[in-house]
Amino acid sequence: MKSLSSLRISGAEVLPIVEGGKGISVSNGESSGAWAAAGGVGTFSGVNADSYDENGDVIPQIYHGKTRRQRHEELIAYAIRGGISQARIAHDMAGGRGRLHMNVLWEMAATEQILHGILEGTKGLIHGVTCGAGMPYRIAEISAHYGLYYYPIVSSARAFSALWKRAYQKFSDLLGGVVYEDPWRAGGHNGLSNSENPNIPEDPYPRVRDLRTLMNSVGLHHIPIIMAGGVWYLREWESWLDNPEIGPIAFQFGTRPLLTQESPISAQWKHRLLNLKPGDVYLNRFSPTGFYSSAVHNRFLEGLKTRSERQVAFTSEPFGAHSVPFAHGARGRLVYLTPEDKAKADAYVAAGYTDILKTPDSTVVFVTPAESATIHEDQINCMGCLSACAFSNWSQNEEGTTGKRADPRSFCIQKTLQDIAHGGETEDQLMFAGHNAYRFASDPFYKNGLIPTVKQLVDRIATGD
User: DSSP alpha helices (H): ranges in 200-338?
Assistant: First the structure.
């Protein structure tokens, strides 16, 4: 493989190897600090990160507010405190080497307030901010206010064009790079548009080439693109190095850093990664954000899938083919189904799915009484972790609601990500991963269950493997 040349990122010459930021305590100060110390760009998550007490123990994020709005304010306080804690740890571990970035999601709750809070408390500790999950047009202005480089995450040249015209051209001097995140192959939430087929992945090369062409047209020849999603061996991307159609390029790794000694995920999660097979990670659309996301198939996702399959359309009054009454609930309230769906409903009830929950789409899903109780409890306990949530109908607007019925086909993303990040059972929680995660099982680097240090992983990646 061609020798890997250093690249100027956030004001310093570093290895063009970037740790991808993974939310809810998965990319933390220890993992990102070690990545920077190895000469690359470490990225910790500023999304509800952990903070610690005087004994160094994680402070559980427990909510005491009686209203969503009160719990929302508690969440903001936790997020700011956690982000500052992780930045300090990362800065100390990096020892002045590499670069340190913080990753946030534009569609998380109170993004701007949390950003200001963390950046006020981390002056001199970090060098840049990455941001995706939406159209983060204000990330430029906020980062520039603190003299930091900003790195928008996009999945197309079209998205970057909109951001550039609306905001970024005013702050071009601190645009550190543009992260192209492959919407078919990356882990976590993905930026697929309505015009793109989730089942037909596109070749990233022409999409990145188009992004570079656009960037060149507005004078950004020198700004690196960071390729994210689907990157495993750099030797498989050798043709991208020193390629005038691609320009300066770095590569982001989100999934491989999960399996390191410094990674905070549980031993059970690491073991699961080592034993994945092709197809175990797939795109789904159960997230309360409304985005597609990539996660490991397990009981959690299977439960969401089968719940949605136990779904029929209804009317509140007889209308057309919806002529058959169906009684539900303790009071025997009626909805009207088609004869075919009435037969399905009777079968669901006979199988133990005796409770029905209405969705925003004039359908009902059939669940067990235990599932129904959990769904209602999670919706009631909502703390407003997103700018808008389909599952609970929370919104950070003045009304505090999306104005739509809460959707029982989704789930509380804060709850499950906190649980799995802090040792929860991997079969029963959402486990994000990139689509290449199955390669842990066949990569000789991980033979006999090796879990490397971050330094060993960065050195290995730099060789092309």
Answer: 204-217, 267-274, 299-309
